[in-house]
Structure formats: C-alpha cells, structure tokens
TrEMBL record:
Protein name as annotated: IQ calmodulin-binding motif-containing protein 1
Function (record text): Involved in ciliogenesis. The function in an early step in cilia formation depends on its association with CEP290/NPHP6. Involved in regulation of the BBSome complex integrity, specifically for presence of BBS2 and BBS5 in the complex, and in ciliary targeting of selected BBSome cargos. May play a role in controlling entry of the BBSome complex to cilia possibly implicating CEP290/NPHP6.
CDD domains (UniProt xref): IQCD
Gene for this chain: Iqcb1
GO CC annotations, alphabetized: centrosome; photoreceptor connecting cilium; photoreceptor outer segment
Amino acid sequence: MKPAGTDPRILSLAAEVAKSPEQNVPVILLKLKEIINNTPLGSSELKKVKQDIYCYDLIQYCLLVLSQDSSRIQGGWSTISQLTQILSHCCVGLEPGEDGEEFYKELLPSAAENFLILGRRLQTCFINATKGEEQDKLLHFFQIVTDSLFWLLGGHVQLIQNVLQSDHFLHLLQTDNVQIGASVMTLLQNILQINSGNLLKIEGKALHSILDEILFKLLSTPSPVIRSTATKLLLVLAESHQEILILLRLSACYKGLRSLLNKQETLTEFSRELRQLVDLLTPKIHQEVEEQKLHKAACLIQAYWKGFQTRKRLKKLPSAVIALQRSFRSKRTKMMLELNRQKEEEDLRLKLQLQRQRAMRLSRESRLNMLEIIHPGQVEKYNREMEEKSALTIQKHWRGYRERKNFRQQRPSLTEYKAAVTLQRAVLKFLAKCRKKKKLFASWHGLQELTDARRVELKQQVDDYVKRHPCSQMSEAASRELHAQAQERLQHYFMGRAIEERAQQHREALMAQISTNIEQLMKAPSLKEAEGKEPEQFLSRSRPVAAKAKQAHLTTLKHIQAPWWKKLGEEPWNEIDVPKDELSVDLGMLFIGGTKPP
C-alpha cells in the first residue's frame, strides 16, 4: 500500500529507476544519499522519507545492485560503497508498518549477508592488488563497508548473532593481512561493545573458532595494533561472561594459555591489559576479583536500598510533619480547655463562697431583725423552734443520704431481680406461643380427597344456594359507603385488638411478678431466723397491698393490746375496725419499697 503525501523527489526517483536501463540504475540510486543528507537527522520528515523509500522498493533495488559483480557496475567499488552507506542509513530507524515480518526476517539478514560478501570480495581484491594506490582505495572502500555493517548492527541488534555465525565473517577474521585484520578486529570489538551477550547465543563451534582466531592473532601476529585489539577483546569477554572465563581456564583446548601469555613482551602499550588478562586466568587472582565484584555489587545494592529508604522517608516527611502539627495543636487545645475549666471552677468556687457568705450575712441580719421585733418573753420559744427546724433539716438530709446509700448497695440485687422478671416474662411468653401453635395444628390431619360423586353433590348445593339467594345490584355510592363502614370497623377492630394485646401483656407481666413474689415468699425464712435486711426485701411495691397489710397489722396489735374482757365472745378471725384517720397517718410514715414519696 503506497503512503499518502509521498515526497515528490522519491516519486521522481522511483519513476526514473523504473524507466532506466539496468546499467544506469546504480548511479541513479546514488541520488538517495543527497535526499537523506538534506533531511534533518532524527526528524519525523526523515522517518517519512525512509518509509517512502521502502514502500517504492528502492531498498530492494540497492540489495540487487550489491549482489552484482563490481565490474558491471558504473563507478565500480566507489558506487558500491556509497550504496552500502545508503542502505544502512535507510534500514536504521525505519518503521515498515504492515510488512514488518518480511523486513525483519528477510531483508535485514540479506543486507547483512551482502555486506559480508562485499567485504570478502574487497579482501580478495586488496590481496591481489599490486599497486599501493589501488590498495589504499580498496582499504578505504573496505572500511566504508565495515562501518556501514556496524551502523546496521547498531540499529538492529538481533542481526549480531547472524553475523557472528556467518562463515564469511569467520573468513574475514582469519585473514593474514595486517590492515584488513585490524579493521575486522575493530569491527568485532565494536560489535561486542554494543551487545556482548549475543556471543554466548551462537553455536559452540563458531564460538570456539572466534576465540581460537583471537588467541592466534594475540600470540602469532607481529602487529601491535592487532595484538592490542585482541587483548582488549579477550579481557572484555573474560570480565563480562563467566562462561568464557571458565572455558579459557579449564578447557583442554586452551591448556598452557597462561604460560604463553606470561612469555609475551611486557614493555608494550597493552601490557596493562595483558597483565589483567593473566590475573583473571590465575585462580587466586580470579577469586579476589570475584570477591571484589561481589563487594561492589553488595555496595551497589546497599546504595540503592539506602536511597530507596531515604526517598521513602522524604515522601513520608510532609505527612509526619502534618501529624506532628496536628498532635501539637490538639495538645495545646486540650491544655487551653483544661486551663479554662480550672479557671471556671475557681470562679465558681469563689462565687459560691461569696453567695454562702452573703446568705450567712442575710440570715444573721434577719435573725437580728426578728430578735428586735419579737417580744423578749418569746425569744426562747423562737430559738427552740429554729433549733427544731434545723434538727429536722439535718435529719432529713441524713436520712436521704442513708437511703441513697442503701439503694446503691441494693442496686445489684434489684438489677438481678429485674433481669429474673424479664427472663420469666420472656419464657412465659415463649411457652404461651408454643402452646398456641400446638392448639392450632393439633386438629389438622390433612384434607380428604374428594370423590366425583362428592364434587357433584357440592356443586349442586352451591347452585341451589345461588338460586335461593340471588345477588342484589348495588350502586357505586352505596358500595363506597359500605367500603367506608368496613374500613371504619376494621380500624376499630385493630385499635381494640392492640389495646387488648397491651392489656394481656400487662396481665402476663403481673402474673409473672406475682409468681416471682410467691416463690420468694415460699423460700423466705421465718422472722425469728431472719437477719440483717432480709425482711426489707419483701416490702411490697403496691400501695393497696401495703395498706391492706398495715391494716391487718394494726388490727392484730389492737386485738393484742385490748383488755381480756373485751375479747369475750369474739372469734379470732373476726375483723376489727380501724379508724381511717389513724390508718392514713400511719401510712404516711410507712416505707413502701420500690416507690418514691409523693
């Protein structure tokens, strides 16, 4: 699918490639370099240009040109090297869209393979060249191709594994030429700097071949540049990957490697890297290095953890400050309230003291005024009356205090008594419900099935009743009036039923209370055996009962105190009349438990 808004330069270039003969296509494709260079680097416009180049198959044309013989291409190796630059720049940063699978799985591996093939061709031409100028040009073109390959691998890291497993790359690495070997070793070093983990993903045979070639160049090549690069490569691999270090130390293929490295010249530019490599291959030094690494890792973990804890505390600091301020303000508010309360209590105490002093002063003044008004002969009587009133007041307060104290002491027993009454009431109510349910369901034995003859008989009876009692027509007003009367009667019924239910509950409560009192009386000791305040627990809460008891008690006392001659002719069960005045006076002084005085 062709994208909308295509660059007109790409359109004209694609049309020119399609119309031109095959030998002119490479030179026309070189115009892509000018288009890419004139577009700002990293801009969205450059991404759009690369998408247009890929959509119009210009990248595929570049791959086809690179696969041709250099002698058939106009411009030779110069054109080919520029096309490799164009191809690598177009592939890096390209978003293929819907054709992503074809781009990543076919086009990119094919481009990397073509770059390696071009490198091998340039290597062969460089070795066969006799002139120095021609070798310099070929070496320059070779470096351009390797740089383009490195640029492509930097943008697509997944191609590194394909390149390292390629036979063409291994042939390039095995060259004896110093200049080509230095370029290839530099390329390998740059590749491993991008991602050295892909070296462990390749096959074991390819890995051994690469390590063997690096060790060969380190031990046999006279060029110090290649040896330095090889030493740095081995040092990076040994430090980064524990598997490669174990392979170099323990594998039989590399037995005696440490002694060969010790025999190398020490007064060289890479003697420090070489010494580090030898130390890594030494077991003790290797253990120390591992401990240092572990120590550094532990320090790094501690640093990250401490930083995390510090950041966490800093995040919680505002809330902690807010909580501290809140607690301080609440404490200060409580202190102010306490000070205000103490101040109010002090003011109230002073006010009461002033009121008491004022009342005492007024009392003394009124007493003096009364003494002035009263006749001297009645002063003693007045003082006696005042003393009696004062004594009565003191007695009243003392009795109130005593009764309140006794009530507080009896409160637990009263609470238990009320709880027992409540439990008895609930149990009696529950038992009554159970008996009621039993009565409702006792006579239920299920319905008998009706026979056909019985159904016919019942139907005949219903029809006869309907004929004898035909329904009368009723007007709407009469129906509404009848409905209103029914609603009113129903309301009266429900109200009366609620009153009856409350009365029934009251009767049940009274019955439960009477049962409890009877049970207590049955279990009570005789008056001779009673001790302490046990008789007070049987004082009645009902005034009529208390009055009747008092009347019976007074009757008994009158009968006992009467002379013997008045008892002649009387039966012991005969009642004696007691004056109502005497009974009411006595009842006024009677303490009735559970009630308050009027």
